[in-house]
From TrEMBL:
This is S-methyl-5-thioribose kinase. GO terms for molecular function: ATP binding; S-methyl-5-thioribose kinase activity. Its EC number is 2.7.1.100. InterPro entries: Aminoglycoside_PTrfase, Kinase-like_dom_sf, Methylthioribose_kinase. It comes from Tepidibacillus decaturensis. Residues 204-273 form the Aminoglycoside phosphotransferase domain.
Length: 409
């Protein structure tokens, strides 16, 4: 009787046995090794490889609690959503996600393509590497996976069936708490604020009633606007990259929500890369060269998204009333509004909340980190409060620059 007929949390030795028994990827005589390589907040990720041929596979398993904190009790079937979404995204945006080989409902794990020839984008940006094709790749991914899963394109009953299929209450609750609630009031006492910034954060976020009201509006829009099938956690830690290839991973937070949630996450995490480079590159010319590239990437992503979105709309729209003149631009405007808001929410929660990013925490100089955090949070407030005014990439960049100018070196 197989040991894998009942769920348990695997160790590397178990994963080797699992791969041999459940996957038809390696020769019987393969000499396999395994290492746990996960560094995320939720799941356990194992790399298995044949020491003789270097053939490899990734096995990802869901535990019953989040790795970030045992406070988060989670359904172990969340990897099914991830596997299903990756396969759908692979059809909508070919070549931009890893190939899924198998999902195991008993062990709550999936086996997929190993992307070890790529690197995690967050770390690559911290090392100040450039990826000239990223803006083109990520905007194609977002337009294809988001617009093509809306009521504008899909037959309405088909879309509603997808909404039902991707109900994801446990992980949505994490987003509702960590992104839309706690950074602005710390009502659970879980926020982790850089101590020198605590009083500033209390004054600028917790005590800003106008900001809190706008965030309240955004939270309920997030919970009720089943617009498109989101990745749900589209940051630079969920992207494997190399100069000629971009692969989006980890869509376990996927559910039907507002398109701008994914787009805003991408923009915010490029801003984290910007403040990291600004704080850590000492050579003035090198610093300017890299931050200018990041600025161009931010502008390009917004503008290319706009252009591709309208083109895909024209080519794929099926809803009769969506073909009314001007409706496409109005709809895109609502997406950009949400994108700006989420840019601000993500900037806030990664600095004030429970789940930080290395772009910020790796800044060793206390004063430089303080400045980086205040730039992000100052821009965040404008992205949220003035969200209706953002239409182009240049608009997004202008707000970042205004925040930078408020905190001179």
């Amino acid at each position: 009787m197989s040991k894998f007929n009942t769920y348990f949390l695997m160790k590397p030795t178990d994963v080797i046995e699992y791969v041999k028994e459940k996957l038809d990827l390696f020769e019987p005589e393969a000499d396999l090794d395994c290492k746990e390589i996960g560094d995320g907040n939720l799941n356990y990720v194992f790399r298995v490889w044949d020491k003789n041929t270097n053939q490899s596979v990734i096995v990802k398993q869901a535990g019953e609690t989040a790795r970030i904190s045992d406070d988060f009790k989670l359904s172990t079937d969340r990897n099914k959503i991830e596997s299903d979404v990756l396969q759908l995204e692979g059809k909508l945006a070919p070549g931009l996600v890893p190939v899924v080989y198998k999902y195991d409902e008993i062990m709550n794990c999936s086996a997929m393509e190993d992307l070890s020839d790529h690197v995690i984008m967050r770390q690559a940006l911290i090392e100040h590497k450039k990826f000239p094709l990223f803006a083109d790749h990520v905007t194609t991914f977002m337009v294809n996976t988001l617009l093509l899963t809306t009521d504008v394109v899909l037959e309405h009953k088909e879309k509603k069936a997808l909404v039902k299929n991707y109900i994801n209450p446990d992980l949505c609750e994490i987003t509702e708490d960590l992104v839309y609630t706690e950074p602005f009031n710390d009502y659970k006492g879980r926020n982790d604020v850089f101590p020198p910034n605590l009083e500033w954060v209390r004054r600028e976020l917790y005590e800003d009633q106008e900001l809190r009201l706008e965030v309240a509006k955004l939270k309920f829009e997030f919970m009720t606007n089943a617009q498109a099938l989101l990745h749900g956690d589209l940051h630079t830690g969920s992207i494997f990259i190399k100069p000629d290839s971009t692969k989006v991973i980890d869509p376990e937070f996927a559910f039907y929500g507002p398109i701008g949630y994914d787009v805003g996450n991408v923009i915010a995490n490029l801003i984290f890369a910007w403040v990291n480079a600004d704080a850590t590159i000492n050579d003035v010319a090198e610093r300017e060269d890299y931050t200018v590239w990041l600025e161009k990437t931010i502008v390009d992503i917004v503008n290319m998204f706009n252009e591709k979105f309208l083109k895909a709309w024209e080519e794929n729209v099926s809803e009769v009333l969506a073909k009314e003149e001007g409706f496409d631009k109005w709809y895109l405007g609502t997406v950009l509004r949400d994108t700006a808001a989420v840019t601000g929410l993500e900037l806030s929660r990664r600095i004030v909340g429970l789940a930080h990013v290395k772009d910020i925490t790796s800044i060793s100089d206390k004063n430089a980190r303080l400045r980086a955090e205040r730039i992000c949070l100052t821009a965040a407030k404008d992205y949220i409060k003035k969200r209706e005014s953002f239409k182009t990439g240049e608009d997004f960049l202008a707000t970042l620059r205004e925040a930078v100018n408020r905190f001179p070196r």
